[in-house]
Every structure is written in C-alpha cells, then in structure tokens.
Amino acid sequence: MSSLTQNLGRFVADLSLRQIPAEGCAIARTGIADCFGVLIAGSRDPEIALVDRELGHSGGAALASLIPSGARRSPETAALVNGIAAHVLDYDDVSLDGHPSAVLVPAILAQGEVSGSSGADGTAAVARDAGAVVTRHTSNRGKAAAMETGAEAVRLLDQQEDRKIARHLLFLDADLADSAAFAAPLTQPVLSGEADMTIAAFSSTVKLGGHGAVVGLSSAGTRRAIGWSPAQPLNGQRCLTRAAFEAARPLAAGFGVETALTIDLARQGLRITEVEVPLAHRATGTDLRSQLHRARQLADVARALATRR
C-alpha cells in the first residue's frame, strides 16, 4: 500500500506547469521570493556557519550550492544548510500560512541544480515516462563531471530506496545511437563478481578523422604505468562496481578520465576485464572543431598520465 508521502510525491512528480492555476503559480512565486530573502539574511547567522562546518564535507559529490556564497556541497547538505538559513530568523513565509517554503524551496533548488531542470522543461517528464532518471548540466563541465553527476544521481536513488547493496554503474557515451541496445554484455562480468570494471572493445570500428595520437599516448602511458593497456584505452563504455568507482575518485579531469580509471584501479589490485560488444560511435570529422576537440583530448590524457608516473 502506498503511503501518503509516496502518493503526494507521485502527484507532484507527474504535475506539469500547465496544470497549475495562475493563482497557485502566484502563491508559489511569493513563497520562493520570500524564501530567498530570508535565506540570504539568515545565512549571516553564526549558527549557519556552525552547521555548515559540521556537515559541509560529509558524503556525496559537491553538486549543489549554498546561497548566497555559491560554495559547493552535496545536494542533501546544501538543502539542509539553506533550509536552516531560511528559517533561523523565523521571518519566513509571513505572507503565507505556516512555514512551507523554508522546507521545500532549498530541497527543490538542490535537486534542480543537480538535474539542470528549470521546472518548466518537459524533457525530464518524457524520459521519466520511459523509465529513466534524467540529470543534466546547464553548461558543459566535461566528461568526468558528467560521470560524477550520474553516479551521484544513482547514489541518491539507492538512498531513497533504502538499498542495502549499491547499484553498479554503467557508463555509455551519447553517440552510440541504436547500438547502445547491445551494451548488456558489459555488465555480466561485474554482476557475476568476476570483475570490478569492464571496458568495451568494439567488434567493429568506424573510420575516424584523427591520426591516432590520443589513443597512442593513452596506450603507451597506461602500459608504462601498469604493464598493460586495453585494446581501446579511451573507450568510455564501462561498467564498474560502486566500490570501484569510489576507489577511483577524485576522477581525472575531462577526457583523461578513462586512462586514469584504468591505471588507478589496476594499481589498487582491482580486476579489469575487456568485453567485446557490437557498439559503434558516430564518425568524427576532420574540420577545425573536430581537431580542437582532439587537442583537448590529448591535453587531458597527457595531464592524467603526468600525475600517474
């Protein structure tokens, strides 16, 4: 039987902005504006610094912001510290009955920042109907940051469901198109306990516009570091346990993340297995934009290797 909280949460999750009457939107805007005002004022209270000092760096990736400082904390910590700041002066929601905004607004802001949602965007609703949990960045923060955000979303889902055993993580690039449906074999060695991380080896390759410099650097550097290199060292299609992911953190910046993952986990004695899969990337070009992209890849891989000699 569903609880009252679950039913209320489902109602809110399925609600679209168009379904909310104008009067309700006006009340919400008043509550949000009120909450921001008292939150900023309350953030100067010494108790807020105390709470932040105790909780500021406890658990979870720092994906949400404290207001107004912009300091990064985990979504749970940001919601709690901002919520306390909104209520500490006890002036919140003077125009409404009770104190709903201090409880709701900081949590909504933290979750919205993680997912990059404006609240009016219908994309998340469509994806949710297909069974997905969607997160996104409002700006491009690089591949490693995207992986951190995805992993944090899974951790929050595990926490919400009170799972005793953490989910494994499967990372797939966005340009696999329909071939992504054939990624399942990557998960099998991890699910069976035979590997801590799997790396895809594409059974067919698409002619790319590069000259192999980035792949060659990654392969040579990885082999020098651990005495072995995957057949496709830059392949981002990987499945790994939560424990393996945490062991690799902090992730190397940008496009150096795959090279660093292989080296860091191998040096810790974790088991890495290559799995041949019928996946395929979109072909890349030879225009200036593509070449600049490869230059960024080369720089990121070089930085990852330089810190792992």
How large is the radius of gyration?
23 Å
- Provide the CATH architecture of the largest domain: Alpha-Beta Complex
Backbone structural class: alpha+beta
Q: Major β-sheet, in short?
A: 4 strands, mixed
Total E-strand runs: 6
Strand content: 5-15%
- CATH H-level superfamily title of the largest domain: Spore Coat Polysaccharide Biosynthesis Protein SpsA, Chain A
Tally of separate helices: 12
Give the number of domains.
Answer: 2
Topology (elements, then pairings):
Elements: H1 4-14, H2 22-42, H3 46-55, E1 64-65, E2 72-73, H4 75-87, H5 100-115, H6 123-129, H7 143-160, E3 169-171, H8 188-191, E4 197-202, H9 213-226, E5 238-240, H10 242-248, H11 257-267, E6 272-277, H12 288-306
Parallel strand pairs: 4-6
Antiparallel strand pairs: 1-2, 3-5, 4-5
Description:
The protein is α+β, with helices and mostly antiparallel strands and 309 residues long. It folds into 2 domains: 4-125, no CATH class; 168-306, Spore Coat Polysaccharide Biosynthesis Protein SpsA, Chain A. 49% of the residues lie in helices and 7% in strands. The protein has 12 helices and 6 strands. It has helices at residues 4-14, 22-42, 46-55, 75-87, 100-115, 123-129, 143-160, 188-191, 213-226, 242-248, 257-267, 288-306; strands spanning 64-65, 72-73, 169-171, 197-202, 238-240, 272-277. The strands form 2 sheets. It has a 4-stranded mixed beta sheet. Strands 1-2 form a two-stranded antiparallel sheet. Strand 1 and strand 2 (72-73) form a beta hairpin. Helix 4 packs antiparallel against helix 5 (100-115) and helix 9 (213-226) runs parallel beside helix 12. The longest helix has 21 residues, at 22-42. It is elongated.
